[in-house]
Amino acid sequence: MNGLAVAALSLVAALVVTPMAMVAARRTGIVDRPGVLKTQTAPVPYLGGIGVFVGTAVGAIAGHPAVLVPLAAALALGICDDRFDLPPLVRLVGEVCIGVAVLLTGGRHLPGALAAAVVVVTVLLINGVNLLDGLDMLAAGVTAVAAVGRPDPHAGEVPVAFVTLIAGSRVTPDELEAWAADHAPERAAAPRHVEIIDEIPLTAVGKPYKPELRRRAAEQAARAAVAETGLSDQVQAVLVDGSLEIHVPRSDHDDMVGDALSQYAWTWKLTISRRHR
Fold first, then answer.
1. Cα–Cα–Cα angle for 193, 34, 90, nearest 5°?
2. d(CA 232, CA 243)
3. Rounded to whole angstroms, how far apart are CA atoms 99 and 116?
4. Which pTM value belongs to this model?
5. How many Å apart are CA 136 and CA 148, to the nearest integer?
6. Average pLDDT of the segment spanning 258-268
7. Which domains does the chain have, with CATH numbers?
8. Positive or negative CA dihedral for 83, 89, 93, 99?
C-alpha cells in the first residue's frame, strides 16, 4: 500500500471514530466542563485522542507497529486523567513509563545518557502539549503581556498590564480587563488597567524591560492624580539613575499638585522648584 493510500485511510478512520468518541464521552461524563480557566459555556467532550490514535494506528500498522505501544500508553493515561483528574505525581510516573516505552520500542540500544534524554524529552513534550491545550482561546489576539505594579495611594501598588496584539485584532482594553477579572485566581491579582501598546520594551537579551513599563504606569497614575488641575498632559515620569521621579510644571495649582502627589510613595518635583517628597 502506497503512502497516499495509507494517509487517506488514516483520515477516513479518524473521521469515522472521532464522532463516536464524542458520543461515548458525553455518555460517560468524560467532558471538559466550564470553569475559571475555561472559555466555553457548555461541557465539551474529551476523548478526541481516540480518533487521533486510530488514524495514527493505520499508518503505524503499515510501517512500524511497535510505536503503537507508547501511543496506546499515552492514550490510556490521557483518558484516565480526563476521567479521574489524576494527581500530578501519578501523571508524572505515567509519563515516565511512556518515555521508557518510547525507548524500548525505538531506541533500546542507545547509551545511558541518550536513553535518559529520550525519557526526559518525552515527558517535556507531553506536558508542553498539555500546557498549550490548556491555554487555547484564553487570550485570543494577544501576542505578549507584561505586568508591573502601578503606584496607588491606598494599596501602595496595584497590578497593571501592557499587551500587544496580532495585526487586525479588535480586542479592546475593556474586554481584556473583564476577562482578567473573571479568570484571575483572586481579585487583588487582576490588573486594574490594561494598556494596548505597539511593542513591549525589551532588554538586550530579549526580556521585558520592567523599569520602562513601571515608568509608564507611574505616569498614568500621576496624571490621574492631578487631573483636576488640568495639568495631566504635562506630567512626566522620568527615570533618574534608575529611580523614578514625577515632574510637574509649576502653575497656580502647586498646592493641589502637592496634596495629590504626596499621597504616593514616589519622588516628585515641580520643574522649576525644589524637590518635594
1. 105
2. 21
3. 9
4. 0.56
5. 24
6. 90
7. 3-135 (no CATH), 142-276 (3.30.300.30)
8. positive
- The single residue listed with the C-alpha cell 514625577 is 246
Cβ 106 vs Cβ 100: under 8 Å: no
Instruction: Look at residues 50, 86, 89 and name the one whose alpha carbon lies nearest to residue 71.
Output: 50
Nearest residue to 113 (alpha-carbon basis) of 127, 105, 126, 103 = 103
Burial group, residue 148, by CB count within 10 angstroms (0-12, 13-18, 19+): buried
Which three cell numbers mark 84? Answer: 479521574
> Which alpha helices (H) appear in the chain, and where do they start and end?
3-28, 48-62, 68-84, 88-106, 112-135, 173-183, 210-225, 254-261
- CA 197 to CA 217: how far, in whole Å? 12
Q: Where are the alpha helices (H) located in 63-172, listed in sequence order? A: 68-84, 88-106, 112-135
Cell of 161: 498590564
**Using an 8 Å Cβ cutoff, are 119 and 100 in contact?**
yes
What confidence tens digit (pLDDT) does each residue in 129-141 have? 887 777 666 666 8
Q: Compute the residue count for the chain.
A: 277
Residue 237's pLDDT is 94
